[in-house]
């Protein structure tokens, strides 16, 4: 039994990079490879950024989708108990393009019942300034979420 997208020969994958670790003898498929093609067709100057997201957010999007990247500030009640209102999320990327999403389904934390509820990494194409904003939001512990945009 050979999975779809399996490399037909070793020559087909020589020089390519694996997107994640593999065990000896494991079948290499197209979904397991990363490489220079990830940004093919992206806007000039865009970079690829991995964004860890919970499953509920990562399952909302698919490769090719345009999204807003939103960062909610840390809970003001945790830093200032006298704060009476919550803050509004900031837009840190206006129109990022989804390049790759975590594999859905399969065996995750729920075993054969479904994927990992912890989510995974969504890879986005965005400008360098936006990439810095996204990285800063993640590093600050902001609640980063995606909002799906309509097709143009």
TrEMBL record:
It comes from the Bacteria. This is Flp pilus assembly protein CpaB. It comes from Pseudokineococcus marinus.
